[in-house]
């Protein structure tokens, strides 16, 4: 991508330029997940975020926000291409443990390095690996934050990413090799912000890190390293979003998010 501000991106991540290697890719993905929170504040407030490169750069790098997959992995793709990586896009069907996925509403990346393809994803928000995974089927793989495996689904023709827990495998999403255009991404973004069955207009979902501590929000519930508690005020929400996770948000936006949470809770 011409014109991408790589210095500003790396400054937000707090790292130096990385080499075009598997190790460089891993360092970049981990840094973006840790430093730029997944957040769906715009869709939750009824705003369809722009997913073009310039708009995503402005929102995340210039205005201090996070974003969801169409924004996060657009930014990740632009950074990888600016560094010289070979990147393609894929759309996935989120499964959340189910045998089948829904609509194609998740954007991920495939990065080829010295003949090996890697699943690179900085924008899922769920329990995806901090580091990219080589596209090796039926081979257990370990990341910093968990154990994973990729399996072929012969019925759908998809590769399925699964989180391996003791005694079970939890399907996260499935994807195939279909070409993904900018129009596909625009359509998926529109679906996520307007479709009644999409979760984003109905739930605040935020995932990030406070230092080395993973911190997630689902509406007013905070999950901090496996311990859950409920937020009780807009001030507590502001502390979680802006102090703990480092998002830059006007007070009016935080209040609007809190008001929507309470409105949805009290709806008949």
How is this structure best summarized?
With 268 residues, this protein is α+β, with helices and mostly antiparallel strands. It has helices at residues 6-13, 22-35, 41-44, 53-62, 69-83, 182-194, 234-244, 251-266, and strands at 38-39, 86-94, 104-113, 116-120, 133-134, 141-143, 146-153, 158-165, 168-175, 205-210, 213-218, 221-224, 227-230.
Tell me what the structure shows.
With 268 residues, this protein is of the alpha+beta class. The chain is 34% helix and 28% strand. The protein has eight helices and 13 strands. Strands 5-4-3-2-9-8-7-6 form an eight-stranded antiparallel sheet. The radius of gyration is 18 Å and the shape is globular. The protein starts with 5 loop residues before the first helix and ends with a helix. The model has no long low-confidence stretch (mean pLDDT 96).
Distance between the termini: 48 Å
Q: C-alpha Rg, in Å?
A: 18 Å
Main sheet strand line-up: 5-4-3-2-9-8-7-6
User: How much is the average pLDDT?
Assistant: 96
Strand content: 25-35%
> Order of SSEs, N→C?
HHEHHHEEEEEEEEHEEEEHH
E-strand count: 13
Enumerate how many helices there are, as a single number: 8
What level of helicity do the residues show? Answer: 25-40%
Question: Quick one: overall form?
Answer: globular
Q: How many strands, what sense, and barrel or not for the largest sheet? A: 8 strands, antiparallel
Low-confidence stretches: none
Alpha-beta content class: alpha+beta
